[in-house]
From TrEMBL, chains A, B:
Active site: E271 (proton donor/acceptor)
Pfam family, one: Peptidase_M32
Molecular-function annotations in GO: metallocarboxypeptidase activity
Protein name in the entry: Carboxypeptidase Taq
Organism: Chlamydomonas eustigma
Record-level GO BP terms: proteolysis
Superkingdom to which the source organism belongs: Eukaryota
Length: 509, 509
């Protein structure tokens, strides 16, 4: 029996109704998370746990609803009259449905139980700086993750299946290509910079900066960049993050340290980048999968575009300098130039042990190292017990420094303690996407750097809204989006070229 | 076949699991509501609406889950081995189940639609001060409410069925008894006081009070009364209210006006009373119906006990006076005595048109008036079109003043626009419960008034925790709780005696 366009439309509408309902519940889950980090009184932890579990149960039931599966099956066979956005919705909703229904309850429960145990073990192990205390928990994560991946798609390498959760459409074969190129480009550059360490003066920036004034400055900067308080909030939390419940309700947080002005400032710009991506989503497809962020890497590209390509540039230093002078006249009111500020912001440190403290040059090598290790864990070529040794060897080779202990080495990141394999690469993919996107925007927007120097960010924001934010998840991968926006898939050479030229100038290499 | 204790226990455990899950979801609903009033950015109203609807749908499905009905049926037949708390859970869960399942979907949808229309019509009518614009909407509420009541229990008067939603176990027959007594006691007293209006000086309290200082003072008072910030928050919102997600997460709000110090202060104490009831719940029965508040009237008794019986008393004025002097030395630093403060706090105004602005003497008559009218609407003895006339006649008779227009008369309250019939009486029941409970606590706690004067509230709080808060919904009605706590069902004469003696002294009647 032929299916009429009308039938397809009705089935699709039913699907959308279910997907929007699910999206609303996920928005509520976002509120619970934000509230827990920013507002919840400490004594409510247990009841909040029960609330999150109750909501997760409801969401799970809706995600695995057999009626949803039937609607998707029908629509995958016949999409007469539907446009590409609708097709993308069906495609992504089906993918989520397959993932949600693939994992047996028993495995899901074992994973949930291991989350708490493993996190605790990691906290203890890091405190004692003793990897062996965490090793058995990590081994169990490796086993559970392989088991899970096999249920989702046993025809693909386990690592690729996991990777897809964070970076849609990405594979380890493609990452190998990318990261070998990055490694070969960066390792000699880092060595060259290390020989010039100390040639840029940034000691003058050190000092004590009132946190209230930092917060005021950062709010002003976030609003200048385009963060919209009608559709969002700005609060303070222990760790900066961007959450919220919906593109019309995006909540970013910042935090400030008295003795580190630039850290709070770059974190605020970083979160603003995430927040602008969220606020910029296309409300014509509100509540549908096609309107969600494409991937973690693309999300990170938006934070890093504003943080590194914009806020760490010389034009931005020209915009920032008078603002700093107004808030902290004793430090910035005198003869400090935008050039001096720019240089101080971009200092590379001699020792780069900790990923989250790394600059834009060394950061990628922290990721390459982690990628090589976690990929090896998944395909069996790396054993858990060898991790500390391999970690330190790679640190020496890639970053010319060896961690003095496990806490500052293999135990520094929380990710593996939560079973997040395939997550790390997205940080560096984000940095590379950011460079490529930014360079394209510079071609598209005449006088962009002059605009930045004058504090006019609206053209860049509008361009990102149009080309990245509103496009949501229409494409199937970061590469596809890059192709659509910049004319080429991700090209690490663009990133390497940017880094080389910037730091050759800064360090007179 | 005989049912073993073990079977009963297992069935009961299953019931509790479902009820706790439901309670967690209701807690989430509390968070959505609080957030909307206190935190949500304005542009998020539409998405929040969708989130609330999605969650309401989930809650409805769980409330009407046939498995829940089966568990309840089984347990209502056999409760071998269960204690009185378990029985109360079964009793109240069954009552909620019957109510949730009684109303046909079609009627529920008509009610939901009318909520928005009617509220808008009321806003417009009040703005135009024209009752006729609201009359058809009110008539529809009367019809819908009768229809709804008949579905829940067609053997009882519609008004009694509605009343039970707010004041469990209360009937209109009992309210008639109570309110006739209140009316006969208060009307002559009010007339007597009116002849002495102006004999208490409170002009000196008027002035401008910095709101930040008011907030600081009120926070101190709330903490002194026993509000626990480990299990709650204190914020500012347009209308003060107490919400939250759980007894370990109680969120109260206050608001302050520069030109009205006492208003913000009494509102803060009022909300603290609600909050202490919430924080005081018995966590042994966490998430179960027996652990919820007994009724709106009992909830209000806790806010009014602290607001009126404690904070408007002379001993409290002794505690408060030095605090006021510390925060507002220009006004309270001089020769003002606690007695003068006490008198100023308890002034009765000549004209009492607006319920929410009424003092503790006239307040009850505003309620008697509304009760008589809404009861008449339900039994057909009062016609919607006659409301403005009847309202004004009763105002003159009970409160010696006539509203100049509908906006300040019959249109002043939002309740009827939302179809809330049977809600008003709980305010006055709360005041009467409060008096009776407070007088009992005074007998039970030697030196209570001296403690209050010294700012020591912990014994009173502990007594209320033990006798009211922890008891939750164990009893079937406010009367039953009153009997258990004070030895007698609600006795309006206790309230009248308190009012008479206090105001006879204040106004030298």
């Amino acid at each position: 029996m032929a299916v009429s366009e009308q039938n397809v439309k009705e089935t699709y509408d039913k699907l959308c109704e279910k997907l929007k309902d699910l999206s609303s519940l996920q928005g509520i889950s976002g509120l619970l998370g934000w509230d827990e980090m920013v507002m919840m009184p400490s004594g409510a932890a247990a009841s909040r746990g029960a609330q999150k579990a109750a909501l997760a149960g409801v969401v799970y039931d809706k995600e695995t609803d057999p009626e949803l599966g039937q609607l998707l099956d029908t629509l995958r066979k016949e999409q007469k009259g539907l446009d590409e956005w609708a097709s993308a919705n069906i495609r992504d909703a089906h993918k989520s449905y397959v993932k949600a229904t693939a994992i047996p309850k028993d495995l899901a429960q074992r994973i949930a139980r291991h989350e708490t145990d493993s996190y605790q073990a990691w906290v203890e192990a890091r405190k004692a700086s003793d990897f062996s205390k965490f090793a058995p928990y990590l081994q169990k994560w490796v086993d559970l993750s392989k088991e899970k991946a096999a249920f989702i798609d046993s025809t693909k390498p386990a690592y690729d299946v996991l990777l897809d959760n964070y970076e849609k459409g990405m594979t380890s074969a493609r990452l190998d290509e990318i990261f070998v190129q990055v490694r070969e480009g960066l390792v000699p550059l880092i060595a060259a910079i290390k020989s010039k360490i100390g040639t840029i003066d940034d000691a003058w920036v050190k000092g004590t900066y009132e946190t209230e004034k930092q917060a005021e400055l950062c709010k002003q900067v976030a609003l200048d960049l385009g963060f919209n308080l009608e559709n969002g909030r700005l609060d303070v939390s222990v760790h900066p993050f961007t959450g919220g419940t919906h593109p019309t309700d995006v909540r970013m947080t910042t935090r400030f340290k008295q003795d580190d002005l630039l850290d709070g400032l770059t974190a605020a710009v970083h979160e603003t980048g995430h927040a602008l991506y969220e606020q910029g989503r296309n409300l014509n497809y509100d509540g549908l999968p096609v309107n969600s962020s494409l991937s973690m890497g693309i999300h990170e590209s938006q934070s890093l575009l504003w943080e590194r390509m914009v806020a760490l540039s010389l034009p931005f230093a020209k915009y920032l300098k008078p603002k700093l002078a107004a808030h902290f006249p004793e430090k910035f009111g005198g003869e400090v130039t935008a050039e001096e500020l720019y240089k101080a912001e971009n200092v590379v440190r001699d020792v780069s042990l900790i990923r989250v403290e790394a600059d834009e040059v060394t950061y990628a090598m922290h990721i390459v190292l982690r990628y090589e290790l976690e990929r090896g864990l998944m395909d069996g070529s790396v054993k858990v017990e060898d991790l500390p040794r391999l970690w330190n060897e790679k640190m020496e080779k890639y970053l010319c420094c060896v961690p003095p202990n496990d806490a500052q080495g293999v135990l520094q990141d929380v990710h593996w303690s939560m079973g997040l394999f395939g997550y790390f690469p997205t940080y560096s993919l984000g940095a590379m996407y950011a460079t490529q996107i930014y360079l394209r925007s510079k071609d598209a927007i005449p006088g962009l750097e002059e605009q930045i120097a004058e504090g006019e960010f609206k053209h860049l924001k509008a361009w990102l809204n149009e080309n990245i934010h509103k496009v949501g998840s229409l494409h199937t991968s970061g590469d596809e989006l890059m192709k659509a926006v910049t004319g080429s898939v991700l090209d690490p050479e663009v990133f390497l070229g940017y880094i080389r030229s910037k730091y050759t100038a800064l360090y007179s290499l």
